[in-house]
What does this fold into?
Amino acid sequence: MTEAERVLLDLLTIERLEVDLFRGTGSGGETPTRIFGGQVIAQALAAAYRTVEGRPCHSLHAYFIRAGDPSIPVIYQVDRARDGGSLTTRRVVAIQHGKQILNMSASFHVQDEGWDHQHVMPHTKAPEFHPAREELRNKYVDLVPEKLRGGLLRERPIEVREVDHLNPFTPQKTDDRNQIWFRMKAAADVDQITQHLILAYASDMYLMSSGMRPHGLSWFTGEVNGASLDHALWFHAPVQLKNWHLYSMDSPWSGQGRNFNRGSVYSEDGTLVASVAQEGLMRKARRKP
It folds into this structure.
């Protein structure tokens, strides 16, 4: 297990303070300056799972309210909204400095009999045909101010291979469709609940950048003031994230300073394991005089 993988698994192990009150670590995710959105979602889901027995989560819907402060812990307060015959509902509020930074509803469902269908996984080359995230970032390190290079190059827990990589410093206008392969080898030793938490974390990666592709933008161009506004995730099938998964994303709309993005997560054998939707701010950055 790498140090980055260990840190992520530690982040997902939250502390119970009271019956429905939990505490999670703020630092250690994808971004050093503010808490990565996927980290808060994953910890909020972990808190909800600690109040549910025998039912897997089938969906969650979250709103990002304030940027998270990585220098302090996050408090998660769970409201047991409903325990029904086949469905359980939880509401989770994430708090820092006495204010909400995220609120989330999550629903848990017994495994019922039904009818099955799914869209076919898009055809794309296998992960080994695409460069690793670390290889790409090393390629651009000289274009980043020296004080920021450590953050760019530090080890990440999720292994990523971009299918259609764009130069983040000089991105060309292109199709909104955006695909990555991802996996976490240390997930081989975790249970299905933790698999859900890791997937919730990973589902916030690369998604919002889909809406930037048609405009020739990226987080590195300095033209965009952006942040995730909300995030929805539906779990369809069991996941084993030690194996490669294809995250196929697109952005059917942007306007009024926002963009809308969707994603489908497929296991390597073509099973649709999860669906994602997110809206984010995509405003023009104000130039300093």
Notes: The chain has two domains: 1-110, 127-289. The mean pLDDT is 94.
